[in-house]
Amino acid sequence: MIRVSHADQPHRLTQSSTINGSAMRASLLSLLILVAPACSPSSLVSRDKDLPMSMPTSTTQEQSHVVDQEALLSSLLNLLGETSTMQDVTSSQLSGLLHSTGRSREKGQTVFSGRIDQKWLFSLSLRNEGAANARINFDIISSSGESGIAEPAICTLDFNAFKSRLEAAGYEHQTLYGEHGRPVNEVFRRQQMVVTTDLVGMPRASDSPARLCVIALSVE
């Protein structure tokens, strides 16, 4: 034990305090030698490198879950048929509809992601949950970066079937045209709900009817 005199006297150590201090320093030195390898900078860096940079391991594993395109759009169509306003849509509802897909939180939105097959992925986000300006954005994306051409995997439920389902649920359909009379978007309205779709065509033989597929949609 170290004893310190009053401020007006010089500091003095007793013999017993010197012995105890030496023993304490020896114990601390032994402890540092044991702990140092586990806490060295090199060991910490190697552990950080093993961690995924973008999302937790559980979310990455969930992304491999495959969701059939027809089942996916059918679930969304059921939700749109049962919902009167986007303000009522919750992330818990969407999580139940999408069945175990990857889920993450970003600024002001919940994002769900998954795989349709080895090439095609999907992403669905719910922005401003519970607010009057809540919005769903849904996209089907090619992992190879291709765009503009659909494939059977993302067109099991095509636009004609999609349109019929929404019209049966009371939505009114309107085609929006752009420059030179080219169709730009297909829009469906019902009271406080507006569904806007982007379409892409399937390759076809010259004598086959055109087949359009929903590649993206938004709901407000």
Describe this structure in words.
34% of the residues lie in helices and 27% in strands. The protein is globular and about 50 Å long. It is of the alpha+beta class and 220 residues long. An eight-stranded antiparallel β-sheet has the order 1-2-3-4-8-7-6-5.
Our estimate of the beta-strand percent is 25-35%
Q: What's the mean pLDDT score?
A: 75
Q: Based on CA inertia axes, which overall geometry fits?
A: globular
Instruction: Summarize the helix and strand pattern as letters.
Output: HHHHHEEEEHEEEE
In the sheet with the most strands, the strands line up as 1-2-3-4-8-7-6-5
- What's the count of strands? 8
Major sheet characteristics? 8 strands, antiparallel
**Distance linking N and C termini:** 74 Å
The percent range for helix content is 25-40%
**Rg, nearest Å:** 31 Å
Which class of secondary structure composition applies to the elements?
alpha+beta
Q: Spans with pLDDT under 50 lasting ≥5 residues? A: 1-63
Helix count equals 6
